[in-house]
Write a structure and sequence with these properties.
294 residues; 2 domains; six-stranded mixed sheet; five-stranded mixed sheet; 48% helix; 21% strand; globular
Length: 294
Amino acid sequence: MSQPAAVIDVGSNTVRLVVARRESLPTPVHTDKATPGLGREIEACGRLSGTAIATTADTVRRFCADARAHGAASIEVLVTAPGRQAENGAELVEAIERAAGILVRVLSPEEEAELAFAGAVAVASPSAPVVAVVDLGGASTELAVGCAGEGPSWVRSVDLGAVRLTHRLLDATHPAPKDVEAAREAVAEAFSGVTPPLPGAALAVGGSVRALGRVVGRCLARGELAAAASILPACTAEALVERFDVSKQRAPLLLAAALILSEVQQRLVVPLEVADGGVREGALLLARREAAAA
């Protein structure tokens, strides 16, 4: 059995670690996550505070130590939207590299979409020949469409995610109908130029996607997403945490997630299936292939 590999994913809302055996499909042996909330600082100030940078760097250092303790032979650190969107994203990368003693890779939107596609398709094994993958993050949403065995042939990134939309228009405990409608219009405008090829199946990935799936089910069709957008404004974060086991950091983002996914689903036509694989699994698969080819 080959030694495990690790991927640490620094996103707008969470920092996640997965240590997995490098088999035909990544088999996790250890996972962890932290929620420094970088996306909110970027939205509020355009840049990250020294405290946020230091906290994130220390989290990655700790995750690297945990990965090695669980036998990881290699560790890859990926930074998504925070590295692209923060004015001082380079400072975040430098701090992580100093604290963890490991090089950091800042993913372009296209690279993020391609890894999400690879990870989601590999884990879900959809039967449709043409598949779409929607990677809903905190600050951006990536879409990729292509053949399951070949990778995406069409990729787009929209600079709107669940944290960004919540911060801008849905930050009240109970958003008013006019706020929900304003958010819906902002989503439609952000995606107005996005016309994907129509797939036979669609997968949705990301922390907010999985949390929304706990509330309305893992098949996110038009009806389920419309129901979520109708019900969630009246739900408190505490009620979502207690009833659906959603984290208290994630619960306030679910309405924004439902509105964004509803717009995407209308453009893809087919229902969105909640998928467990994503960027981290895609990176692990790519590392396995590169190791096999070496």
